[in-house]
Amino acid sequence: MFRFLVVLFFIGTWIHAAEIVPIEQDDSRVTPDFAALGQMHQVAGLIWSGVALNTMNYTDAIRFCKTLGGKARLPTKEDWIHLGRVMTRQSEIFNPELFPGMKDRWFWCFSGNRYDAGIAFYFNGDNGEINYTLRNISGWVRCVRGV
Hints:
Layout: H1 2-17, E1 20-23, H2 32-35, E2 40-43, E3 46-48, H3 58-67, H4 77-86, E4 106-113, E5 116-124, E6 130-134, E7 144-146
Antiparallel strand pairs: 1-2, 2-3, 3-7, 4-5, 5-6
């Protein structure tokens, strides 16, 4: 019975690790502007862009993703929660090294705060937590698009 459990553990680890799949720069599913942001990865039904070169406020982040074309958008709070779960599964501790460009950054979520229009949610790339802050300060941006 012990051998069976070990095999399941390793198989489960391999399956979860495979959920973050690198995407080639010349992939036909993305626009050249989207690809220009660098390292892209597919997680479930989304392709995640690399990190924008500059930080920006919430409104500019939404606009920026739209300018990339191909139905690119700012990830929702739910998109980030899913990515955070994928980045936690291997060790049961959030690992920012599993997804390039996460460490020491926080990223805007396209999900406002229904109680205060001046606040929006963000994803903390160091620990995988969702929190909120003022929309007029600068944060990092990643964009997503459907597969």
